[in-house]
Design brief:
Layout lengths: L7 H8 L21 E2 L2 E2 L1 H9 L1 H8 L3 H15 L6 E2 L1 H27 L7 E2 H9 L7 H5 L4 H19 L6 E2 L1 H8 L8 H12 L7 E2 H6 L14 H14 L6 E2 L1 H8 L6 H13 L7 E2 H6 L1 H4 L18
Helix pairs in contact: 2-3, 5-9, 5-14, 8-9, 10-13
Length: 322
Amino acid sequence: MLTTLFVVLAISAVFAGVPNPEESKRLMDHLSDQEHFKNEHHNKKFDHDAFLGEDQAKTFDQLPPEESKRRLGIIVDKIDADNDGFVTLVELKDWIRYTQKRYIEEDVDRHWKQHNPDNAELLPWETYRKNVYGFMDDMNEKELNAPYSEGFTYSNLLKRDRRRWHYADGDQDDALNRTEFAYFLHPEDHSGMRDVVVLETMEDIDKDKDGKVSVEEYIGDMYKPEDDEDEEEPDWVKQEREQFTGYRDTNKDGFMDETEVKDWIAPPDFDHAEAEARHLVFEADADSDEKLTKAEIMKKYDLFVGSQATDFGEALVRHDEF
């Protein structure tokens, strides 16, 4: 699931700079596929993706700490647009927006070239299907329909992609131009695709497939208890139950329907880049002046970027900016 994270109280908490586990469940939050909070534990990988873009974050994960810090210093100088020695909330927000736009553009370009090497104006559905799901043509009905089998899983993914393709295909010619292909790959980044993101979210969370989300399904999507089933729920889970009852379930029928899920994952006028910028300032602003010096950022470098000392993962190293 695109992770893949608000009602007035939750928004005010984020805007005040206080990290909130709620952020991790905003499915329209396209800053990272990581969850910002896992069972109340802060996941810095989310911040790394938001600050650097996902590809660059993977690159930093492979660097020795000193090289990671050196490159972070170069980035800080770029963020400080007016060269006054401070990184303001506005400058940090603009940088996060820039890195996310760059990541999406590069991701779309990479996939467009992969599926459309001749750079034709349009990419037909059948071409995409054969590239991604062509191996399924050799599977028999039993392999495709047996519950929990690999074929069954891919069949569901194919159906989801087919529907998302339809939503992205503005002129309904069953072929996508590059702009439409970007909508298909990153529906969370385009307002016109919100309905299909809501549908996908409902399918992921609605385990009993009754077309609505119960409080247990809502909690189960964000909290998995340990082996001890008698363990008392953390306070933040209890607060989430209260959020569901008091705010998410607006018609008070005990469930969230599609409209209520949409209000949860895609609230109007919510700025994810600003919320993340405020979170980073809150965490690193040692003197509480609501702006960051280079020294403050470097002191909290592992909040902004990863390194071999903090993260492990595959990376495609890029040196063009450093």
